[in-house]
Amino acid sequence: MTAPAPRRSPHLTRRRFLALGATAAAVGALAACTPTPAWVSPTGAAVDRTERGRGGTGRVVTATLTAAAATLDLAGTPASTFSYGSIPGPVLRVQAGDTLQATLRNTLPVDTSVHWHGLALRNDMDGVPPLTQTATRPGESFQYEFIAPDPGTHWFHPHVGAQLDTGLYGVLIVEDPNEPLRYDDEWVIVLDDWLDGVTATPDAVLEQLREGMGDMGGHGDMFMRMGNMLMGADSDLLGGDAGDVYYPHYLINGKPAADPAQFTGTPGTRVRIRLINAGGDTAFRVAIGGHRLTVTHTDGFPVDPVAADSVLVGMGERYDVIVTLGDGAFPLVAEAEGKRERGFAIIRTGSGQAPTPDADIAELGEGRVVAVASMLFAAPEVTLDRRDVDRTLDLTLTGSMANYDWGFNGTQFDMHNPLRGAHALVAGERVRLRVTNDTDMWHPFHLHGHTYQHAGGGPRKDTSIVLPNQTLDLEFDADNPGQWMTHCHNIYHGEAGMMTVLAYRP
């Protein structure tokens, strides 16, 4: 994620439309500067061949995303931010194999981009400046065009600075034309932690965090706020420190608990709920009072169904669940794990008094089943075939809150030289990522351009929670050439340096 220009500084010159050809030339110039060994270029022939090999339906779906200044109404409190016209942004729908043509129009005073989170798409459409494209400048536009290969619940957001922690996000659902799951209705639920325009901007938060906590970490069990930092947030599910950013609001579909989102249905209806965590620093534990959840998918891929009372969703993760609605009014709660606050919405299927945000939720109590990735197994149809591993890449998550020096293998990412320390891939290989968390905090690990499978038949995913002192073995097939960002999806950890690149050799 590139460092943005100052947050609200004006940019008065309106530049011409950036056609794909011009952008390709810019990215090509970047590639020409890479050190030996040479890497596959995001605009190279290998990327084109792979895209043609996807086939596709031939159908084209078009969309326009206008990034603009916006004001979010938080139960009467106005918050200045950025958005794509609403918060959350639009829900885009395509079928697997369709081509999406999405034009980004940047009316912001700062650079931006769109990253299509969870999609194994062509490399030059991944939206990661300066790696795969130049940033889209104020007054300019960029057209993303790619085949959506796999069905599932996905989303999109910028990959420039800390913009992910603004209102710039939306949903991309890739439909399965042969969907085997049976349900009567569908709800898309986007979870978010919110501070932009209320207590600070994300850029200001990042600057404060970069100063580090020094010896301020020795507060024991004390739970307290210091500026934009939160100390003492603790969760056994997350292995200790649950997060370090203070948020005044936790949102469900852009609504705070004081003005909750509402969902309606009919008793006995089977609803598919697509859960997306668009937060910057918060894992959410989601439950519905008086109901059990059946987990059917994670990060877009089906799993052997698991019944649970709640599900833990880290930043960037998605979970699909099925719930059979009861009769009455029920709380839908997104507990901000370890932070002693919650997002709140209301489900109404009949008469009865509406629940309140502080309602006691038995499903979140001790001894209840919390669905996490480690208890899931990939459905047979998406399980990777058995074969020997050709390459193992050791990726160790390093750093601390004390110095705020997050990185991979002891190195912080250099935005001015993104290919420094890149990890080599060779097309056709089976690759094992051995991800070791050598820090005292949990991290949501995210790989671009591919999906991996947890070892031992675990789920297919692109984003996984890695607990302190935990090692995850993740396997994938190197079948999508280019230069791919890999990072912690805590936006502040990533921007501080916990990013690296997996790049294909020619």
UniProtKB/TrEMBL annotation:
One of its GO terms (molecular function) is copper ion binding. Gene3D superfamilies: Cupredoxins - blue copper proteins. Residues 1-31 form the signal peptide. The keyword Chloroplast does not apply. Residues 85-178, 249-339, 391-505 form the Plastocyanin-like domain. InterPro entries: Cu-oxidase-like_N, Cu-oxidase_2nd, Cu-oxidase_C, Cu-oxidase_fam, Cu_oxidase_Cu_BS, Cupredoxin, CuRO_3_CopA, TAT_signal. Pfam families: Cu-oxidase, Cu-oxidase_2, Cu-oxidase_3. Keywords: Copper, Metal-binding, Oxidoreductase, Signal. This is FtsP/CotA-like multicopper oxidase with cupredoxin domain. The lineage of its organism: Bacteria, Bacillati, Actinomycetota, Actinomycetes, Micrococcales.
